[in-house]
Design a protein that fits this description.
5-stranded mixed beta sheet, 283 residues, globular, 8 helices, alpha+beta, 11 strands
Amino acid sequence: NEKIDALINGAKDDHMKWLLTRQKGIGGSDAGIIMGDNKYKTPYELWQLKTFNTPLETAENSACKWGHILEGVVADEYAKVTKSTISEMQTINCSDMPFISANVDRIAEKGNKIKILECKTARMNTSAGETDINGNELMLWGKGNVYNNDGEAVIIDNQVPISYWWQVQHYMLVTGIDEADIAVLLSTSDFRIFTVKADKEAQNALKEKICKFWECVLTEVAPPYKVADIKKIKPKEQALEIDTNTLEKFKKLKDLKAKIKEMEVEHTTLQNEIIELIGENDT
């Protein structure tokens, strides 16, 4: 941390200072990555960043830039809809594990209720790649809460991208607050609010994984690799001797690949037969 503090003091702009400060511990945006629920970054890639084994992404991308600009706009709209008082809070650290920190967007207060408010922007609502029990396609974002004229939620929706769910669980873990609202502006004109309640079991699992990950950072020993990491790892010129159990895993993987291929062919065949039967009919 002393090394990072020196870099922070010599940073040329606020964005660089913010990036370097994040290196000192684990924040909410790291939670989904550590839990393996972030499609953009693996735990290994995060470890590379935290240990300075890969250059910091110093250039602020367009989505990040506009997300910061519109954060206040989203917070103001949330305040209007929910009739809440909004305030900012300084970064705080977990009391027993100071390397776990929370830098929440806002705190929302209404009556005697305090919530974490996370403000998001997204280009559009895309498919989550899953279906519900009725076979309907699930989207990353649900329809959102429904509020009455008093700003009270009469219908609560918690369907948010899993990485954001972990992010607010992380914030609730650190702050002790038991509820978080995620306000999102989709496609520049579609405003929605979601409510996520604290999940103690999930938070305990998160805390355990963070501790293991931070130990990897301190010891500079890489965490377990994922399939996405293969092309990023520099291989050692040596062979690995495997045991019978691992050999069985290779055989099972080969069998599964063959079965998947057969099922994909059957799926396509059935799909074409059904489409041919339906023809030009709409019902």
